[in-house]
């Protein structure tokens, strides 16, 4: 299986690359900074240097050619301003999905955020609200495309060691989840047809990942 991950140097993406490559899959991580190539190689993948805020659809589709799965795990990051929330969390996600269609990569997984559907009801942190609105707009764009898509909304992310046990459902309620277990779940979703066409929430739970995905 050939998997292309947008945001290939992210904490979840590097974990996912290590998992997939360890199972014998070919992994390509899209990054904009060539200094990150070594980290992706150390995780068992190969880097493709491309800036999703500036690239055209054709360039992204070239990287996606012959892929079996496309995974969007990019994000502007907590230190970015409102403008980059739009250009990365919405714009880059839409570009990546469009390029997947063009390249004929049907299986498409997008990492969203818990609470994206409640962005318009939140008060307080304006930047976080902008971020959630961008994530929701990216979800709406993907849902309208001719792809076998899944949107995964993790809860609050932690760097705790993974337990391999999760709760994944259309609705889970708020909670937290380790980045280890998000990566493990994403790896399993690559080959979980029951997740196609669904928005799934993910938090820590009691069910082993493989069993939880089999029960979707």
From TrEMBL:
Pfam families: NAD_binding_10
Database matches in InterPro entries: NAD(P)-bd_dom (IPR016040), NAD(P)-bd_dom_sf (IPR036291)
Protein known as: SDR family oxidoreductase
SUPFAM superfamilies the UniProt entry points to: NAD(P)-binding Rossmann-fold domains (SSF51735)
Boundaries of every NAD(P)-binding domain copy: 7-192
Organism superkingdom: Bacteria
Species in which this protein is naturally found: Kribbella albertanoniae
CDD domains: SDR_a5
Phylogenetic placement of the source organism: Bacteria, Bacillati, Actinomycetota, Actinomycetes, Propionibacteriales
């Amino acid at each position: 299986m050939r998997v292309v991950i947008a945001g290939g140097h992210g904490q979840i993406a590097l974990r996912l690359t290590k998992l997939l490559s360890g199972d014998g899959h070919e992994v390509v991580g899209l990054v904009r900074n060539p200094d990150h190539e070594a980290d992706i190689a150390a995780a068992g993948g190969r880097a493709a240097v491309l800036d999703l805020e500036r690239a055209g659809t054709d360039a992204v589709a070239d990287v996606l050619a012959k892929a079996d799965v496309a995974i969007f795990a990019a994000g502007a990051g907590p230190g970015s301003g409102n403008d980059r929330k739009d250009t990365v969390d919405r714009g880059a996600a839409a570009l990546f999905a469009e390029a997947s269609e063009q390249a004929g990569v049907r299986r498409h997984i997008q990492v969203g955020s818990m609470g994206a559907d409640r962005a318009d009801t939140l008060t307080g942190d304006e930047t976080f609200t902008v971020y959630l609105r961008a994530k929701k707009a990216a979800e709406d764009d993907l849902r309208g495309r001719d792809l076998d898509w899944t949107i995964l909304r993790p809860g609050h992310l932690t760097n705790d060691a993974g337990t391999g046990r999760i709760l994944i459902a259309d609705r889970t309620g708020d909670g937290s989840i380790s980045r280890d277990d998000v990566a493990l779940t994403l790896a399993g979703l690559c080959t979980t047809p029951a997740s196609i066409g669904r928005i799934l929430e993910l938090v820590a739970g009691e069910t082993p990942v493989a069993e939880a995905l089999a029960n979707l």
